[in-house]
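> @MW can you paste both from yesterday?
MW: sure, first one:
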Amino acid sequence: MLPAAFRPYSRTFVLLLCVAASFGVARSLQQTQPAMTLPGATPLSVRLQEIAASGKLSVLRWPSFSDHRTDFLQLYQASNFSPLWLTASGHLTPQALAVIQALESSRQKGLIPEDYDAARWQGRLAALSTTADPTIQANFEAALTVCTLRYISDLHIGRLNPKHFNFDIEIQNKKYNLPQFVTQDVIHAANVQAILNNVEPPYAGYRRTEVALQRYLQLAAKGDGPLLPEAGKTVAPGDTYPGTAQLTQRLELLGDLSQTASVSADSHLYTEALVDGVKLFQDRHGLVVDGKLGKQTIRQLNVPLLFRVQQLDDALERWRWLPPSFPQPPIVVNVPEFVLRVFSADHKVALRMNVVVGKAVRHQTPVFAKDMQYIVFRPYWNVPRSIVRSEIIPAIVKNRNYIAKKNFEVVTYSGTVVTSGSINDNVLAQLRAAKLTVRQKPGPDNALGLVKFLFPNEHSVYLHGTPAQQLFSQSRRDFSHGCIRVQQPTELAAYLLRDQPPWTPEKVRAAMETGPNNQQVDLKVPIPVLILYITAVVEEDGSVHFFNDIYGHDKSLKALLAKGPPYPG
């Protein structure tokens, strides 16, 4: 019953409530349903409208397609909710069969077949061939459309947005208009597979990784074979090792043992032929290439092949995040590999060198893409505030001459030198209060070496030289505070300035050794720089190299993919 105050107006009030409720329901229906049932609609088209309205389809392995609901709706609105994959007589189009074949082969692309119902299509085809039930037909039609949308998007830009991992790589501008792409390029295609092949990244490295994946899938299907036994001590060439039979089998399986190598099946001697195979294996797995069977080498030899398959899957996913082209050949740093490559206009590696990257704990080098704009010869090192606070100030407290000893200067933020000698209490107090900062003078002992390469970014990360050349001989090289130290800075600078007279290699070397301090040289054309994270790399010669997941990014990727679609955008 209405309150007494409203009773004189009860009929009007109830009418208003009904109108308001109806308006609310109408708005709700408008938001969740594509449209009113079309005049003359068939049961099949009505069912497609219902599926589009809900954004769910129970017959799918992953029923919710909320991320592609708008694409689905636009596709069927354009066809008045008529089937895309079924003829008027209820038969499948040739394009539908070709798409299904691609979905069933999705494992060969480094994808998860369950995401596209790969194991369910044959049963659905059998059911479709024995009935004209419009509900079964509509469910089949909708399932094929959803899986096609997922497959094309996943192949083109990857399943997960790199932003989800705080990777500063943009994929939004390379997204397809999926309804338009399916309508114009797929459902009437003379060669569906050719269309789908063009969806993938155009890079030779991506194609090589796909080929390597096929090989490792085949190897994994054969089984890992017996594990190598642990050794009590490092096994050197000429030593005895009880696992030589297992070692021989594993090296032969992976292709690291020469087919012409002569190894006795009954001997436990660690012979030169096995040593050569182990060296090749070590080189491919980011280990010190010494030919010795230490704990790390045996551990890597015992890694299951399905784990290597997963690494190749992850590599393909990250390849798909890259832009389809670059305005200039890029510089690419692969963090877990500790390697920098400069690519030429024909996509070949023009320059390759080792690098040192950020420490795994607290100082990880970020993943991002920017353009290199200038080079600075004989740079100052402006010490980051975090390092001043955590390292420089405590060192000054212990030794007031620390600044002079390390060739530092205390400066204002505008660059005015306050002192390069002993630190008094007043200066120390201003450093603690962040009113002053610290920089290191240019020279061969400067932490940045004799040159730095700048591609302005919010992470304050750049490439630079280093006086600590001994670190490049380490197999694992995560030692920095986040910036990237390059092993051959002179060669890199000379290559980047090769088309800018008068910057000959000799001129570059002179600028680094005897030139003016903090000399900036702008690049005539900015160079794209990609800081990437890929733990499986296939070289131009086809050799497959694997690296440790030092930052845990592969682990995070695997955990999210295990949840199934729709994946975080």
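MW: second:
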Amino acid sequence: MSDSPQIPAPAETAAADPMAGVPAGLAAAMRRRGFEALTSVQRAVLDADPGTRDLRISSQTGSGKTVAIGLALAGHLAAGTETDRRDRPGPSVLVLVPTRELAMQVREELAWLLASIEGLAVEVVMGGTSLAQERRALERRPLLLIGTPGRTLDHLKTGALVCDGVSHVVLDESDRMLDMGFREELEAILETLPQPHRTHLISATFPAGVRRLADRFQREPLHVEGTRLGAANVDIEHVAHVVDPRDRHAALVNLLLLNEGGRCLIFVERRIDASSLAARLSAAGFPVQAFSGELAQAQRTRTIDAFRDGSIRTLVSTDVAARGIDVPDIELVIHADSPADADTYVHRSGRTGRAGRRGRSVVLVSPRARTWMARLLRTAAIEADWRPAPAAGLVRKQLRKRFRRELHARLGSEEMPTQAQIDHAKGLLDGRDPAAVVALLIEMAQPTPACPPMEVREPAVHERSGPGDAAQGFVRFTINWGERRGAAPNRLLGHVCRRGQIRGHLVGAIDIGPDASSFDVDASVAARFEKLVRRPDARDPGLRITRAGGQGRARGRREPHSRRPGPRTQARPGPARRDPPER
């Protein structure tokens, strides 16, 4: 981390009032929303913030960080006279977030929390919405503005947004904003803000790139931990299934059948994968929709609303699109496509197990990727339960058990049948074996699943121990892109996969040097990879990839994607096969 003072995760408060220290209006709003006490990160911020320091707030996804920063901002937003607010040229607090969905979520969260502050106006600027409408909203000079980096910078450049009065700026999910390529926009915005102002960062993880950005723009920051960085969410059960790629659909079907009635979020790499998988699962009878950056904003909003109200129970989403999904009762997260790195796994799985509820995170792993995935989970400090994917027989057995539990619960309830129902039952039993009648009725009452369970074959055992750990090993390549020009493992991985048309698990060790870097490619695809990367790259014509002498490292390489990232490069290769950044 840095040399900033650090406040550890607090123990559960023993105060008689679990809302001690919260302003009365905010405490009342929290109780109306069902809060009985502050979460650990909210208590940590309230206890630690002296009202003068820059904050670095780290805590697990879904632990209440948005409300925590709202508590920190409340005193400032409530201060000042109406005249002061009228004279201010623009917002006093600016909150930057990576995606449109998260912008809307943060506005909703802060609006109810801060509703008792007289005269508070909250507005949002984000891509996919009307620029003219946003300009009119900015003319009203809202006290609190939430925006995505690209759209916020657009309004700054045109003069529609004036930040001369900003006293606090908040970077929410700062690690994801850097991963999505927003470094230049963030730096441009932060450099325009007046001095002095307070700069706060909120993140589930604080990798090196985020720390460098924070060190540049924060002054003597106070690091507040709701949960320790890298600590696993104890409310999430982590499961890994080794599945032959040909049986991935069958495994998904069986997992959804076992989660029937619960909400499920399925992660895939690309927008086209989200659309095709959602269509296939929908055809099988499941209420499923795709959720990705290619949807218009109105459609994205309708999809989230349908997921929240239960009209649809399953979303198939890309990593970028899922950043704004805040539905507290998602019971199951499925990684249909493996996450690119440990941080991505943490963010994905953090969509479940929120607000004290239990959840489950299931990753589907190809046989050749098992060792690689095990390393990734260790990097994320996750202890997963490795078990076979649920077979058709197991699914049928579990569905029968669930029905019987529900039947016994109904029989044990105080709800009594009507006299008409009793008379009908007596007529059915007249002259018949009661046990036979009950058995027949139970069979008829069995709920019909969306589709029959599917067989999942036992995956073949591969001699290779992980992605790229083939018997023939690795082949090493070099690229003229190093840390001085912004090379970082996740960005280099994206460029390599795009240029060579390979998936991330076929890339082994990555070594970032000052001016050049090297990486390993699975020998089984190295020849085709070498042929493809010889072609000039239209997007980044200055980057050249060549084969190095010798073999790559098939053993003893670093943990997957845990290398230190560098500053953003002038050449801008994007993430492999993932949604482009939103404005």
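> thanks! The first helix runs from residue 24 to 32.
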